[in-house]
Amino acid sequence: MTDEVESAARSASRSRPFQIVARLGYAVNGLLHMLIGGIAIGVARGTGGEADASGALSGLAATPGGIVVLWTIVIGLAALGLWQVAEAVLVPSPDPKRKWGHRAIELGKAVAYLAIAGTALSFAMGRSSDSGGDARGFTAALLATPGGIIVLGVVGLGVCVIGGFFVVKGITQKFTEDLTVPSGTVGRVVVGLGIFGYVAKGIALGVVGILFLVAAFTVDASESTGLDGALKALVELPFGPAILIVVAIGLIAYGLYSFVRARRARL
Which one of 7, 88, 168, 229 is separated from 44 by 20 to 30 angstroms, measured CA to CA? Predict the structure, then answer.
C-alpha cells in the first residue's frame, strides 16, 4: 500500500497541469500575504481591520471582479495543498525521525493551504467566514473533549515548531533550495525578500502557537484568536505598533517572494 501511495504521489508531482496550478497556488498565497500585511499596517496605525485570511478575502469579495479572484484562490490553494501532501509522501531522508519530522511540516502546510482554500470557497459562494471565530470554535471543541487540553497543547507546540522552522529557514536561507534564484541584483533582492518574509511569517505563526498554548493552560477558548489575534497581540508589547509594522512589511515581503517562487519554484 505504501508503494502504491508513493507511486500515485510521484505521478501527480510529475503532472505538468498539476505543476502549473500549484504554481498558481504560490502566486495567490503571495497575494493573500500582501493583503494581510497591508491590513496589519492599518491595525498598527489604529484604523482596525481583520488581519488574517478572512479579512483579506472579505476585502476581495467586496471589489469588482473579486469573485473571479476568489475562485482562482480556491483552485490555486487547493492544488497547492494537495501538492504539499504529495511532497510529504515523497520526503527523501535516510533517517526515519527526520523523515517523519519533515512529513509533519509538509502536512501542516497542506492543512493550512486547504483550510484557506475552504475559507475562500465560503466567500466565493457568498457566505462569510471568521478565521478568529473558527480558531476559537476549534479550541472550544477540543477543550470540551476528554484529553482535549493535551491535544490543544500539542497543536500549540506544533504551530510554534512550524513558526520556528520558518524563522530558521529564513535566517539560514534554506528557502533558496526551493527555487532557482536569479543572478545578480535581482537574485540578491529575492534572497532578501525571502529572509525577511520567512522570519516575519515565523514570528506570526509562533505567536499563534503561543495563544493556543495559553488557551490550553488557562482552559479558555477565547485566548485562541488565530492570526488576527496574534498580530494584534503584538501591539500590546512595548513599541508594539512599530513591531507590528515591521512584521507586516515582512509578510508583504513574503508575498512578493511567493510571486517569484510561483515562477521559479523547483517542482
Answer: 168
For 191, residues 6+ apart whose C-beta sits below 8 A from its C-beta are 173, 176, 181
Please give the Cα distance from 198 to 113 (Å, whole number). 16
Average pLDDT, the chain: 85
105 exposure class (CB count in 10 Å sphere: 0-12, 13-18, 19+): buried
Helix, strand or coil, per DSSP, at residue 29: helix
| C-alpha distance from residue 188 to each of 3, 7, 112, 184, 260 (Å) | 41, 37, 29, 7, 13
The model's pLDDT over 156-193, given as tens digits with 9 standing for 90+, comes to 898 898 899 899 999 999 999 989 998 899 999 999 99
φ/ψ of 181, rounded to 5, equals -75, 130
pTM of the model: 0.86
